[in-house]
From TrEMBL:
InterPro entries: Amidase_CS, Amidase_dom, AS_sf. Residues 22-177, 320-412 form the Amidase domain. SUPFAM superfamilies: Amidase signature (AS) enzymes. PANTHER family: AMIDASE 1 (PTHR46310:SF7). This is Amidase domain-containing protein. Belongs to the amidase family. GO terms for molecular function: hydrolase activity, acting on carbon-nitrogen (but not peptide) bonds, in linear amides. It holds the Pfam family Amidase. The lineage of its organism: Eukaryota, Viridiplantae, Streptophyta, Embryophyta, Tracheophyta. Coiled coil: none annotated.
Length: 431
């Protein structure tokens, strides 16, 4: 068992015992850690920045999501390091250090829920809690070789959670195996047990995989073989997702560009436009949430994130209604594509985790490609799970499954069933 001193995952260690010691509770004997933007009574909610911690009082109550886990029998062992103000997907914090990726020590752990992912990947806790606005659970779960679940938008209470952008904020969670992932999901989503439902269609987004730097046979083909064994050939479908989105989300035309250089960066123009719309609305809401504090306190914010915050402070209301139209159209488009029990299969991220200290221009190109994928569920508000697919060239790889809004229980069940077959054909990470 690794210790937190080896990985730097924890911001503060303490013990919050379960509300009941009954052995019959769904999360009895499990331990978990919490991202440092959840209120925990008696502790400062630091939001990844020392100036935020300095200017905010201790929390007077605990976030409902955390209370639900304690009531279900789990023990909280502390809060974890995160990216400043949740405004990055790298996992590097200039003030508190960067948690060490347990799969690849020379690579970023992913953020902004970096410490939460590392705590699980390094076997410091059984599961952990984070938030996912633009990808902050899905990215670090992929980079650290574990499961990460972003629920349907609005499915889990965000009360007592410092917001980034409410139109996209979700409470997500990490686990090393799909059984614990499901157990946590049943508690947070307040879902009863249901009989697993056979998916009506499982759609491979061919264009997304073709542009990934991970060899196609390592992820999409391995996944397809597991689907065929479990459900037969007829359930598998293929889609050029970029073309589908371009036709079905007409408001995206306002965010499209004819710049060929931009096309090389983003790969799929319609998904690049989707990402642009998402980030515009995210900046606008970040400014509304935190602009006054930033302008008044003038906090010390690290490189990369400080530029993002400055961009947000310059945000105006221009095109915000168009962004909201894109959200509605995107959910309708994917709902039509998937139906009640369909699944869209995409890469979680466009490639393996970047190296620590990657130069800013190279990192920005990778981020742009990543957000084109992450915005699919982010904008539509659908649920998504990142599934570890083992190691390739000593680096973790993953795949993501996206299901309809409200189909979280279905997606968790499907992940459990498929992973029993998938794990037979993948190279596991070893600590």
């Amino acid at each position: 068992m690794a210790t937190d001193s080896n990985y730097g995952a924890f911001m503060e260690k303490f013990i919050l015992p379960p509300s009941s010691s009954s052995p019959g509770l769904p999360l009895s004997s499990l331990t978990f850690a919490v991202k440092e933007l959840f209120d925990v009574e008696g502790h400062v909610t630091g939001f990844g920045n020392p100036d935020w911690a300095r200017t905010h009082p201790v929390a007077s109550s605990t976030a409902p999501a955390i209370s639900a886990l304690l009531n279900a029998g789990a023990t909280c062992v502390g809060t974890t390091v995160m990216d400043e103000m949740a405004y990055s997907i790298n996992g590097e914090n200039v003030h508190y250090g960067t948690p060490r990726n347990p799969c690849a020590a020379d690579r970023v752990p992913g953020g902004s829920s970096s410490g939460s992912a590392v705590a699980v990947g390094a076997k410091l806790v059984d599961f952990s809690i984070g938030t996912d606005t633009g990808g902050s659970v899905r990215v670090p779960s992929s980079y650290c070789g574990i499961f990460g679940f972003r629920p349907s938008h609005g499915a889990v209470s965000t009360s007592g959670v410092v917001p980034l952008a409410q139109s996209f904020d979700t409470v997500g969670w990490f686990a090393r195996d799909p059984v614990i992932l499901s157990r946590v999901g049943r508690v947070l989503l307040q879902l009863p047990e249901v009989t697993p439902i056979r998916p009506t269609r499982i759609i491979i987004a061919d264009d997304c995989f073709q542009r990934s730097s991970i060899p196609h046979n390592l992820v999409a083909e391995t996944f397809s073989k597991a689907v065929q064994k479990l459900y037969g050939d007829d359930v598998l479908k293929h889609e050029i997702l970029g073309d589908y989105v371009k036709v079905r989300v007409p408001s995206l035309r306002h965010f499209m560009t004819d710049n060929s250089q931009s096309d090389q960066v983003y790969n799929i123009p319609s998904l690049a436009a989707l990402s642009s719309a998402m980030r515009l609305l995210e900046r606008y809401e970040f400014k509304n949430n935190h602009g006054e504090w930033v302008s008044t306190v003038k906090p010390d914010i690290g490189p990369g994130i400080s530029e993002r915050v400055s961009d947000a402070l310059r945000a105006t209301g221009e095109n915000i209604d168009l962004c909201r139209s894109v959200k509605e159209e995107m959910r309708d488009a994917l709902s039509s594509l998937l139906g009640d029990f369909g699944v869209l299969v995409i890469p979680t991220v466009p490639g393996p985790p970047p190296k620590l200290g990657t130069n800013a221009p190279e990192l920005e190109i990778f981020r742009a490609k990543a957000f084109a994928l992450l915005s699919i569920a982010g904008v539509s508000g659908l649920c998504q799970v990142s599934v570890p697919m083992g190691m390739h060239e000593d680096l973790p790889v993953s795949i993501s499954l996206v299901a309809a809004h409200g189909a979280d229980r279905f997606l968790l069940n499907l992940t459990e069933r498929l992973y029993d077959l998938l794990k037979q054909d993948i190279v596991p990470a070893s600590l």
